[in-house]
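Ops channel
N.P.: pipeline sanity check, posting one input/output pair.
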């Protein structure tokens, strides 16, 4: 931060802002994209997109999706290590370490480990879910928290982005009528520090 930023910082409270833009893509197991896409009469691709948006909006955990991706990377790392593919294994392990450091930094800054998005909604007429969570920057005397706060000051007026993909199999139906879909999600986090 510049001298002017330091002066502004002295009079205001820092707030950590985390946004997620989640774009999702639905692939029916049947491969059909027109008309009935499953064994359930009248269930169209548009209905599948709406249902998947609802499921994603209900899943409001902040860190669980990133932790799932980390676990998948670690599982792949173990498999690659066992196969002897050292370069691929090292890249996967490094990615998981960086993601864990991001979660740890956010938790030290004031986000609860079991944080839920404060605002989460499906964008109308889009296959997109927008989420927002803000917390006051925890600047307590604890050394680890002070270090995390110092790192987050770097994001003042300079947001950082993290983007990743994940795919999962979902049932968009109910227990009587299963509608199997492949759901691909591209999550983009934007982290910044604002002064209020």
């Amino acid at each position: 931060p510049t001298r002017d930023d330091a002066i502004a910082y002295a009079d205001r409270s820092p707030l950590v802002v985390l946004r997620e833009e989640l774009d999702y893509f639905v692939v029916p197991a049947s491969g059909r994209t027109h008309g009935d896409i499953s064994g359930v009469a009248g269930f169209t691709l548009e209905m599948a997109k709406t249902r998947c948006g609802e499921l994603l909006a209900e899943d409001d955990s902040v860190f669980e999706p990133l932790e799932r991706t980390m676990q998948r990377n670690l599982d792949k790392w173990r498999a690659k290590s066992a196969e002897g593919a050292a370069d691929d294994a090292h890249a996967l392990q490094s990615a998981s370490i960086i993601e864990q450091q991001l979660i740890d930094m956010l938790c030290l800054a004031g986000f609860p480990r079991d944080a839920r998005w404060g605002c989460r909604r499906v964008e109308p007429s889009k296959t997109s879910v927008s989420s927002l969570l803000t917390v006051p920057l925890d600047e307590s005397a604890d050394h680890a928290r002070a270090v995390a706060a110092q790192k987050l000051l770097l994001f003042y007026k300079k947001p950082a982005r993290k983007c990743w993909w994940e795919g999962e199999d979902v049932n968009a139906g109910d227990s009587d009528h299963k509608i199997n879909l492949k759901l691909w999600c591209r999550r983009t986090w934007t982290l910044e520090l604002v002064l209020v």
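N.P.: looks fine end to end. The mean pLDDT is 85.
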